[in-house]
Design goal:
heterodimer, A: mainly alpha, B: MetI-like fold, 14 helices, 0% strand
């Protein structure tokens, strides 16, 4: 077994120890810098260039950003993708996290079969997003229409619709598919938070005659605030970056008619696949979209850090 | 216990209803992958009456699923091994090295938990080309290792900091080097935390579709996710095959999940719930 220590005798012990720690950190740091931090920051630089193919060489300053916001074609695409991403995120925030809170609250009491239910609720989160997206495409398909057959059987014909084919339905339908897959995450996080609340506190409230509804809003909910913050920020980061589920259910163009186009699909088409009609990737513009996404994420994360710090010190 | 009957009833109704909503698509997927096309349309929810393995046979031979599985296993195993090895070394230094540099590096590593690596994809494409790794599954490994560093340093550093300090002191007095303390004392103790990190990354890597989509075209380098997307496109109208392909991709993870549910749940939420 080789030793990670500097050769004896030419450094004093303290410096030698420092060198040892540096050697312990070096492999991780090299990989992380080369394949994650470096490319992220280099994307900022790349967004200032233009040119076809893999090596945009012409320096254009902020022209890509100016085009993105002033050229009507680009502006429309970007604003459309941004708005859709906000809707996608909002549906997760409202539906997924509310359901998660409800399930966690139910699972936090002691009853037979709670582990069984927890296991089932979490199960879809272990599947590939792509597989889940394809599976729901088939289930929602009006030709086969497993879902529509059920609506018909329940005598709710008005709900038997081409879910992925209509512009106003596709994005909510895809968002709910994603909620179906990921609701286990907030459930488990809220559950961990609820388990941390002392039983005596809840028991005392019950003895004083408080209803479960009041106990939830007056005791559990305020104590859960830090967890709610973590869940919210994770929902934000994950969904502002979603790609697979759209690719699987609506294609890289966010069909129908770009009504499900998100920032990540726009980024993919612009910087990697090549946008219709030219079909040639525009890496500079792609990098500009990535940089703006990065800026949106950082704004969200930093304001979350700021407010959660502020709340913790109060 | 003032847990009245109505609440009990409500709990079971809500959780049972959601369980049906979760299990119904998975059931539909598995059961229909064994039916011929006609029966899928006529009777989508029952057990297969005209049991067939055609979909699987086709997917396996036409799609070379054996190859996709082997590729994905190679990538996942190598990336996981490297993440655990270099991640645990870094975490040991981050936990034990008392200096501002270590604090800064810790923040630098865990910042990656909040920043998706995908945003650096364009530069990664150029880097992979420069390294002459495009169109091979080797291109995925360094990217996945980098992607695994934030969670590895986050979970493992926290774990090492919780270990009692006397243990390290005793080993030092006996003349052990830092490497010996790390490899003989810390590493074996860290096994539960390593398992958490391994499961988190295994699920992410196994299911990743983005990087194979961007880096790989050639058939012999495809991963399961990429193979599924290409075959699914081809089989759009052949439902037996399409469902068989999806089942092939889903079943390995589902089996592992049923066997290790507790560890999976702990692993996937490791980034949020303090390790």
């Amino acid at each position: 077994m080789s030793r990670i220590t500097a050769p004896q005798g030419f450094l004093n012990p303290k410096k030698r120890l420092t060198l040892t720690w540096v050697l312990f950190l070096l492999p991780a740091l090299l990989v992380y810098l080369t394949f994650m931090a470096g490319p992220l920051f280099d994307s900022l630089r790349l967004s200032l260039y233009t040119g076809e193919g893999y090596n945009p060489k012409t320096f254009v300053g902020f022209q890509n950003y100016i085009n993105l916001f002033t050229n009507p074609l680009w502006r429309e695409k970007f604003i459309n993708a941004f708005t859709n991403t906000c809707v996608f995120f909002a549906i997760h925030m409202l539906v997924q996290n509310t359901l998660g809170l409800l399930f966690a609250n139910l699972l936090s009491s002691d009853f037979k079969g709670r582990n069984f239910f927890r296991t089932i609720i979490f199960a879809p989160a272990t599947l590939s997003v792509l597989v889940v997206g394809f599976l729901w495409t088939l289930i929602l398909n009006p030709q086969w229409g497993a879902v529509n057959k059920i609506f018909m059987a329940l005598d709710m014909k008005q709900f038997a619709l081409p879910w992925l084919g209509r512009e106003n339905l596709a994005l909510p339908a895809i968002s709910l598919t994603s909620v179906w897959q990921w609701v286990g995450m907030p459930t488990v996080m809220f559950l961990a938070g609820l388990m941390g609340i002392s039983d005596e506190l809840l028991e005392a409230a019950r003895i004083d005659g408080a209803s479960e509804w009041n106990i939830f809003w007056r005791i559990k909910f305020p104590l859960l605030k830090p967890v709610i913050g973590v869940v919210a920020i994770l929902t934000f980061v994950d969904n502002f970056n979603a790609f697979d589920v759209i690719y699987a259910m609506a294609g890289a163009k966010g069909e129908p008619a770009y009504s499900t186009d998100l920032l990540a699909t726009l980024f993919y088409r612009t910087g990697i696949a090549g946008e219709h009609p030219v079909g040639i990737p525009d890496m500079g513009m792609g990098a500009a979209i990535a940089t703006l996404t990065f800026a949106i994420l950082m704004t969200g994360v930093l304001s979350w850090l700021y407010f959660s710090r502020k709340q913790a010190t109060e | 216990m003032r847990w009245n009957r109505l609440q009990h009833f409500f709990t079971y109704v809500v959780l049972t209803l959601w369980s049906v909503i979760v299990l119904f698509p998975i059931w539909t997927l598995l059961v229909n992958s064994f039916k011929p096309q006609k029966e899928i349309f006529k009777d989508p929810f029952g057990f297969p009456k005209n049991f067939t393995l055609d979909g699987y046979r086709e997917a396996w031979s036409n799609g070379r699923f054996d190859l996709y599985f082997i590729n994905t296993i190679i990538v996942t195993v190598l990336a996981l091994g490297l993440i655990l090895f270099i991640g645990s070394m870094a975490a040991y230094a981050l936990a034990k090295w008392k200096s501002p540099a270590a604090n800064f590096l810790y923040v630098f590593f865990i910042a990656g938990l909040m920043i998706p690596i995908r945003l650096g994809t364009l530069d990664l494409v150029r880097l992979i080309k420069a390294l002459n790794l495009q169109d091979t599954y080797w291109s995925l490994i360094p990217v996945y290792v980098a992607m695994g560093m934030p969670i590895a340093t986050f979970v493992l550093t926290a774990f090492i900091k919780e270990l009692p300090g006397e243990m390290f002191e005793a080993a030092k007095i006996d003349g052990a080097s830092e490497w010996q303390v790390y490899s003989r004392i810390v590493l074996p103790l860290m096994r539960p935390a390593l398992a958490t990190v391994a499961i988190f990354n295994m699920i992410k890597i196994w299911n990743d579709f983005w990087f194979p989509l961007v880096f790989i075209r050639a058939e012999e380098s495809r991963t399961v996710a990429l193979g599924v997307s290409l075959l699914f496109g081809q089989y759009r109208t052949d439902w037996t095959r399409a469902l068989a392909v999806l089942s092939l991709a889903a079943v390995p993870m589902l089996i592992l999940y049923i066997l290790l549910a507790r560890e999976f749940i702990k692993g996937l939420t490791a980034g949020a719930v303090k390790g």
